[in-house]
Each structure stands twice: as C-alpha cells, then as structure tokens.
Amino acid sequence: MAKFSNLLVMLELLNTGRKYSVKELSSALEVSERVIREYKLFLEEAGIFVDTIRGPYGGYILRKNITIPPLLIDNNDINIIKQVIKNTTNNKLKSSLKNIENKITKNLLELENNNTSFINTEEELKVYNALNKAIKYNYKVKIKYTNLQHGESVRTIYPLGMYLFQNEWWCSSYWEEKDDMRQFHIKRILECKILDSTFNPKKINIKF
Fold first, then answer.
1. Helix (H, G, I), strand (E, B) or coil at 18
2. 119-203: which CATH number, 2.60.40, 1.10.150, 1.10.287, 2.30.30?
3. Which pTM does this prediction carry?
C-alpha cells in the first residue's frame, strides 16, 4: 500500500486520542514495526509530533488532535485513496480509508467555497493559485512586491504555507536574498512567477 495512504491511516488512528502500541499500528497497517517508527519520524519532520510513552504498556499518542492541512491535498490524492480502497481486501482498512476520503472531500469543498471568498480580484486569485501550486511541489517563486517603505522590488521566495489574517491571505516564505523568513501579503504581490527550480523545505534555516 502507498506510503501516503499508510500515513493517513496512522493519523486517523492516532487522532482518536487513544494510545497505540507499535505492534498494534504494525498490524493495522500491515507493515513492519520498523516501518511504523519510520512513519513516526516522517510525521514529526512534517510538524506533527507524536508522543512516545515508554514501558511495557507504552506506545504512541497524539495529545492534541490535528487536522490534515487541506492545502496540501487535491483531487489527485483523493483518486489515489480511491484506488487503494478498490484494491484492498482488508475491510477494516477499507472503512478507515473511506472515512478519510469523505473528510478530505468535505474539506476541499469547504476550502473551494470559503477561502476564495476572501480574494477580491482576478489577479489576486492568480497569485493565490500559483503560490498554492508552489507550496505543494516545493517550487521557488519570483515575485514583484510592493510596500510603503521600499516601494516595488523583485524577490525570490520559497513559499511554505498560506494563512488567513483578518480575512486577508498571507504567504509565509523563506526570502532567498535576505536568508530569512518573511510574511508576504497577497494583495501586495503584483507579479508571481513559478520558477523551474525547486527547494528542500527541510534544509531551510528558519530564524526566529
């Protein structure tokens, strides 16, 4: 089964708030215990931290429920889940994946109906869509940005995430020229071009 689907199932199980032993997760996902530990590391690299309870009655637990970010999931991902559901003979796994598929579909519909309501112009929508694509595939982006202090400037950024602040969209990015993290207001991005080169988010030196 695809790693992506396995991670979703593992998140679905842990998101119930119950403690699961490595052996239980291994059995549910039909992979080795070593692979389960690798999945835990992968989730933590993505910012989803799984607590480890040690001892004979220990295991993994999420102390706070998480929501899978809908910006990183699209209809292609849903099609992968559907294909896995079709091919698996494990009824318990099939039920879990179907539940995940329904949640993702609901989130995508809400995202499409609600998020773009905070975008006022066609140009803003183009920038919004370009940045989301760059975030999904780790593309570098060149933007023309304007602010009151410096006027217009051209910057190369590595988009890492989008967020709403006071009903307006912002993009959290690494700014290549300044070697620093910056927040870019979508309304102030005059031009946005996705570059051919990509970046590795894990290698960015985030400064606070």
1. coil
2. 2.30.30
3. 0.47
